[in-house]
Design goal:
There is one protein chain. With about 350 residues, the protein is an alpha/beta fold. Helix content is about 35%, strand content about 15%. The chain has ten helices and twelve strands. It has helices at about 40-50, 70-80, 115-130, 150-155, 210-225, 225-230, 235-240, 255-265, 295-315, 320-325; strands at about 10-20, 55-60, 85-90, 140, 160, 185-190, 195-200, 205, 245, 270-280, 315-320, 335. Strands 1, 2, 3, 4, 5, 6, 7, 10, 11 and 12 form a ten-stranded mixed β-sheet that branches. The protein has a two-stranded antiparallel ribbon with strand order 8-9. It starts with 10 loop residues before the first strand and ends with a strand. The structure holds zinc ion (ZN). Zinc ion binds near residues 17, 19, 88 and 142. The site of zinc ion (ZN) has 5 residues, from loops.
């Protein structure tokens, strides 16, 4: 937990997984000929963030670098200091390509050999540095495919902060990472050899009511026992809303849930909120969360309602991911070594 309670500095970071079109899993993992029409939605989004003085962090992946319009826009916003450019890796379409097809397992970067993770990240980092004139220092894995095996390659390439973790979520069913025990507060995460470390500021997850998070984590320990499974604990926790574990994202949530999550997180001492969404949700027809123009409008209403609530009612200051490394004292946060 943060030890910074006296300072009362609260921040909100808005992060965008900025990427090509595609429905990962259902449509496979396209390796080549990716399209990026959805990026025409960035301009409106940028204006909304500027209205609330929140500089978004665009975490961009390899196909975005082939979109000259997006590059032109992102570069000009970066130069004006109203956004940050970070890195987002979809390993299936990120050179070096070692296979023309990717399995579910291989779609998670953290399942690849460390040398291949490094090669892919090195390619992307160098290309972003060439195009933008500045090396990225913020990272999010595609499909949240992050664990300690990625820390070494990231640190070697100059990264300072990761925001791939969804605390308490579990992707083992699809051969992805298990975040059940990871903290929702900022932490330091070390590589497997314990030689280097990165700041981890996870995507904000939780419930609409304060203190529910800790209660649910305790109950979860019980639910995983034969006693828990044999009793009615599961249906009771369902009725209490303890299974409605939310992610701070306008995708698949209601505005009331988002405001509740902001409120409960701040009450529980989570001072650095991280909101996330996909660029594909900003244009109709490219995301299950915004299937048509009306879907995009309602996503914008949830987004604006959340920004208004966080910045005006709850006095959160807009920050980029990399700026958090200046705001958070590494010696005051927990070190994750398991
Ligand atoms: Zn992605």
């Amino acid at each position: 937990m943060s030890n910074n309670k006296d300072s009362q500095i609260r921040t909100i970071v808005v992060t965008v997984d900025t990427e090509e079109e595609g429905l990962w899993g259902a449509g496979g993992y396209p390796v080549r000929n990716c399209t990026t029409e959805n990026l025409r939605g960035l301009e409106r989004f940028q204006s909304l963030c500027e209205k609330y003085l929140v500089p978004p962090t665009y975490l961009i992946d390899a196909p975005v670098l082939d979109d000259p319009i997006a590059i032109h826009e992102l570069k000009s916003w970066m130069r004006m200091g109203v956004c940050e450019i970070g890195t987002h890796c979809h390993p299936w379409c990120n050179p070096p390509i070692v296979s023309e097809t990717a399995s579910n397992r291989e779609s998670y970067m953290c399942n690849l050999p460390e040398e291949l993770q490094f090669a892919k990240l090195q390619w992307l980092t160098q290309r972003i540095a060439e195009v933008f004139g500045k090396s990225p220092t913020s990272y999010r894995a595609g499909r949240y495919g992050f664990d300690r095996t990625t820390v070494g390659p990231l640190v070697k390439l100059g990264y300072k902060i990761d925001s791939s973790v969804l605390p308490a979520f579990d992707y083992r069913n699809s051969q992805g990472p298990d975040f059940r025990r990871l903290t929702r507060y900022p932490s330091r995460v070390s590589d497997l050899r314990g030689q280097s470390e990165l700041m981890e500021v996870p995507i904000t997850t939780g419930f609409t009511r304060p203190r529910f998070y800790a209660f649910r984590q305790r109950l979860r320990g019980l639910l995983d026992t034969p006693f828990g499974r044999a009793t009615k604990l599961a249906s009771i926790s369902n009725r209490l809303g303890l299974t409605n574990h939310l992610k701070l994202s306008p995708e698949g949530t209601t505005l009331a849930e988002l405001k509740g999550l902001v409120h409960s997180s701040l009450k529980d001492g989570v001072e650095h909120l991280v909101l996330m969404l996909h660029s594909t949700s900003l244009m109709p027809g490219y995301s299950p969360y915004a299937k048509d123009p009306q879907g995009v409008e309602s996503l914008y209403q949830r987004l604006e309602g959340t920004l208004e609530y966080a910045t005006k009612s709850q006095q959160c200051i807009g920050s980029t991911l990399s700026d958090l490394t200046k705001r958070i004292d590494p010696s005051a946060v927990q070190k994750i070594e398991t």
